[in-house]
Amino acid sequence: MGRKKKIRRTSKKNKKQEEAINKKIITKSTFKTNDEKIVIKKIKKQPTEKKIYNIKDYVVYPKHGVGKIISVEKAKIGNIEITFYKVFIEGEKLTLSIPLNQQSHLRPVSSINQINKAISILKIKPKIKRTMWSRRAQEYEQKINSGKLYLLAEVVKDLNKKTDVIAEQSYSERQLFEKAYERLKSEFEVILGDKAKVKMDKALKRVENTAQIETPQ
C-alpha cells in the first residue's frame, strides 16, 4: 500500500513539472509572436520604393512651382556622400539642390486628364467669402505653396476679376492672383505648350473682357 501511495505522489509531481514547463513554453512563444508583429509593423511603415527622376524630367517643387532636372550630382558633407538633383525653376530663375532622400518633396507634372480637370475648376463661378481679407490672403498663400494643381486652380478662379484693369483689384489681391496664375500656367505649358495661356484665359473668360477693353476708341 505504501508503495502505491509513493507512485501516485510522484505522478502528481511529474504532472506539475510538465504544467510548469508548458507554461514557460507558452509564454516564450507569445513573446515571439509579439516580437514578430512589431517587426511586421515597422516594415510596413518603411517606403517600399523610391521614385527616381531622370535628367530633363519636369517636376513640381511646392514652394517654387515647375522646374526641370538639369543634372544629378554628388557631394561630400563630412564623411557622408550625398546624391542630389539640380532643379532649375524657370519662373524664378533659381536652381535648387534637392537630395535624393528628400525627393518626396517633389511631384511629377500633372497628366492631361488632371490639366483638363483644373480647366473645368477655372470655369466654375468664384466663391464669395465674407471673412477678413488678411485671413483669406493667408489661406490663398497656403494653397499656392501646397503645390497642388487643383488648389492652385481654385485660387486663380476665386481671385480672377476677368480683366487686367488694375483698379479692379487691391495690390495684395493682384499679387496673389499673378503668383497663382503664373504657377498654374507654367505647369499647363509643360503639357499644352503655347495653348496654355489661351485655354486658361478662355476658361476664366478673360479673353472676352480684354477684347471689349481694346475695341472702344
In short:
With 217 residues, the chain is α+β, with helices and mostly antiparallel strands. The protein contains seven helices and five strands.
CATH architecture of the largest domain: Up-down Bundle
CATH class of the largest domain: Mainly Alpha
Shape type: globular
Beta-strand content: 15-25%
Write down the overall mean pLDDT.
Answer: 78
Distance between the termini: 131 Å
**Computed CA radius of gyration, to the nearest angstrom:** 32 Å
Total number of helices: 7
Largest sheet: 5 strands, antiparallel
Poorly predicted spans:
24-49, 209-217
- What's the number of extended β-strand segments? 5
**H/E element sequence:** HEEEEEHHHHHH
The CATH topology label of the largest domain is Methane Monooxygenase Hydroxylase, Chain G, domain 1
- Whole-number tally of structural domains: 3
Question: Mind telling me the CATH superfamily name of the largest domain?
Answer: CarD-like, C-terminal domain
Query: How are the strands of the largest sheet arranged?
Result: 4-3-2-1-5
Structural commentary:
This protein is an alpha+beta fold. It has 3 domains: 1-46; 58-108, Beta Barrel (Thrombin, subunit H); 112-214, Methane Monooxygenase Hydroxylase, Chain G, domain 1. The chain has 7 helices and 5 strands. It has helices at 2-45, 112-122, 133-146, 149-159, 171-192, 195-203, 206-214, and strands at residues 58-61, 65-77, 80-89, 94-99, 107-108. A 5-stranded antiparallel β-sheet has the order 4-3-2-1-5. A hairpin with a 4-residue loop joins β3 and β4. The termini are far apart. Mean pLDDT is 78; it is low at 24-49 and 209-217.
